[in-house]
Amino acid sequence: MATRILGERVGIKPTISEGTAFAPANIALCKYWGKRDEELNLPVTSSLSISLGHLGTTTTVQPISASADEIALNGKPVAPNATFAKALSAYLDLFRPAPDFFFRVETTNSIPTAAGMASSASGFAALVLALNNLFEWELPVKHLSILARLGSGSASRSVMTGFVEWLAGAEEDGMDSYAEQISGTWPDLQLGVLKLSEKEKEISSRKAMRCTRMTSALYESWPIKVEHDMALIKEAIGAQDFELLGRTAESNALAMHATGLAAWPPVLFWLPESVATMQKIWKLRTDGLPLYFTMDAGPNVKLLFRADNLSAIQAAFPEVEVVKPFE
Ligand code: 2P0
């Protein structure tokens, strides 16, 4: 599929010694949940996210004379048989000018590790942008998004900043499934990350999506929910309507988790602490604090609030990690 975009350039070696790039992490307000093609990471529906400003991944790629790729994460070498290294090398196979062409990849996350946020989105996006620099492809952002998607679906949304929509597309080859920036910023919109568990996920989002799509009777309602929520979120962004944004994002996340509950075997990412946190948020909201949440394929809770409520949020959740996407 990379050759579809790169054509003959895929066989051409770089003439410069390295390429470096940064890509932001992102959090979906309308979720990507379910694939129509697992190999190409083509989604059943469109999704919409917010990029996390300077929080993300910086990656440098260099050609090396060696018999395998050399990969370092946050300054430490990663063993070639580690899952992370294997996933990266398999992805790099798409771009090797020759089978014996190997890369050194140095990748550094500025996402606080304590925040427990996924870095595969910013990781694959930064890698594609770094390869684009190394090989001097000068690809349009649409093509960069398609290439990032081949690494991880949500990475398609991390090649740009601000609010981003990943268009589901309909083509079998995925050439119409890429992300686009939605115009507009929202300077006083803030996020808070509550890391509730150190434990590894029991089920990957990839497996959870598959199981839900194949077995959950509720899954057929998901595309209808997304279509509805997508329109509301765009309306909220256009009007800077925080309440509309918050309640739509929260409802979308809960609906995503609900489809998993109706799957077999059941998919449940929540811990007792997740439920207690949701109930605490609902109580605070009933008491007058404009606070909403979203959750991804894990037990942690991400808060959505406005800058003028920051001190109230910090008082209620002293452990919160605050993210300012538009600063
Ligand atoms: C999202 N998630 O929209 C949704 C919400 C998790 C829940 O994108 O299999 O790591 O690599 O395409 O992108 C996480 O899934 O999955 C994700 P793959 P990815 O952010």
Report a brief summary of the structure.
The chain contains nine helices and 13 strands.
Write the layout of secondary structure elements.
Elements: H1 2-6, E1 19-30, E2 35-37, E3 42-43, E4 47-64, E5 70-73, E6 76-78, H2 83-92, E7 102-109, H3 120-134, H4 141-151, E8 163-166, E9 179-182, E10 189-194, H5 205-215, H6 222-239, H7 242-261, H8 272-286, E11 292-294, E12 301-306, H9 310-316, E13 321-323
Parallel strand pairs: 5-7
Antiparallel strand pairs: 1-4, 2-3, 4-7, 4-8, 5-6, 8-9, 10-12, 10-13, 11-12
Number of strands: 13
Fraction of residues in helices?
A: 25-40%
Separation, N- and C-terminal Cα atoms: 36 Å
The outline comes out as globular
Describe, in plain words, how this protein is organized in 3D.
This protein is of the alpha+beta class and 327 residues long. It folds into two domains: 139 residues, Ribosomal Protein S5, domain 2; 135 residues, GHMP kinase, C-terminal domain (Alpha-Beta Plaits, 2-Layer Sandwich), CATH 3.30.70. It contains nine helices and 13 strands. Strands 1, 4, 5, 6, 7, 8 and 9 form a seven-stranded mixed sheet that branches. A four-stranded antiparallel sheet has the order 11-12-10-13. Helix 3 crosses helix 4 and helix 6 packs antiparallel against helix 7. 43% of the residues are buried. The model has no long low-confidence stretch (mean pLDDT 95). The site of ligand 2P0 has 14 residues, from helix 5. Ligand 2P0 binds next to helix 5.
